[in-house]
Amino acid sequence: MNYVFDWSVFLKGIGGKETYLTWLLSAWQWTLIVAFLGFIVAFVLGFTMGVFRTTGNKYLVFIGTAWTELFRNIPILVQLFLWYFVVPELFPITKALPSFMLVVMALGFFTSSRISEQVRAGIDSIPTGQRYAALALGLTSFQMYRYVLLPVTFRIILPPLTSEAMNIIKNSSVAFAIGIAEMTMFAMQAQEETSRGIEIYLVVTGLYFLSAIIVNIFSSLLEKAIQIPNFVGAK
Amino acid sequence: MNLDFSFLTWDVVSVFILKGLLFSFYLTAIAMIGGIMMGTVLALMRLSSKNWLSVPAYLYVTLLRSIPLVMVILWFFLLIPLFTGKTLGAEYSALITFTVFEAAYYSEIMRAGIQSVKKDQANAGYALGMTYLQCMWYIVLPQAFRNMLPVLLTQTIVLFQDTSLVYAIGAYDLLKGFDVISKNFNRPVEAYIVAAILYFTICFSLSLIVKSIQKKIQIIR
After folding, report:
1. Smallest Cα distance from A61 to chain B, Å
2. What global pTM score does this model have?
3. Which ipTM did the prediction report?
4. Chain B within 8 Å of A2 (Cβ-Cβ)?
């Protein structure tokens, strides 16, 4: 097989001042934006549901568990179609949302089920003594979670949270299915238009790789910045 | 908003859905068996003290784990015809892609499994005069496999969910089946609700089975 690389494909115009390169960069931005917003949704919902599951209140435990099972047992692409086709019909108010927000919601809900698992495991791993100590000091349940349990939990589960952040970038690629102009969509369309699939895919793959590395670096900086001396993982 | 599921007759289901469901199961089974075999080899390579074995395995696993599955599916769909000179069809391409891709994930599980078996056991095998392969095959791998069975099965549930991503190259899987009827009958809302329920039922039941296996294994130990 003799393949001649032609990197000039990225300089080809696609109308106006735009080239495939500028399109790629905006697609990368979309990937990062969708993943970032999705992660915020996942973080908030995941922590809420994870906390619910450790409260011991049977209704809250049920809600948290049902939520987790529901959103992790349906493939992300099917969930995306639910948000795109079904939710706007059932709740017409969501028709006002731009379609990239639907991807954000889909990614956020899907990932929240995984974060909720980690949060629950994290809270369970804290010695019960801390819980009792907090209550003995007269803290309310909310204060106990806010000031005692969650700050430690967050530090414990930072490594799996990091892999979830990397996963959400990877999973954001399903957005192609509803026509969001992110990197996978770019790869598919640019490949079709230029027939220079290998060059295009190589660069897109490289950018996904780079995005994962950025998340990793950010997370290890964060880990160092917030570590508690003489505590889990402290060096 | 009126939901009307009456278009989902047995004829429709058997023509459009069953075919897709069977392919999804087939793809999951092939990728699981192929992926575990290839993953085990990769895990053994990675744990090897020889750099020329461990470095390629490390690169392979890291690379595949850091790019989205959809991109891997697209890569193979593009590259297979370039290398073989003929188009194989989306389904065949998916079978190869998933095996190769899942091997990276299974290999990490098998690596943890192999490391969970105490070194004394392998040493005892060597002391009995077993070769490396005999030692792995008769002593280490059976235990590694059993220790990791719940994790391997959980990964298989993820794999089954991921098969829906063959949508990117238009292979006819379970989701594609629902996609087709949603267009044929112009009933996307009902079609995707049923699709979600079906996927949920399959994955949730599998996860319950995994849980019960996990309990059994715990008792035996």
Report:
1. 18
2. 0.91
3. 0.90
4. no
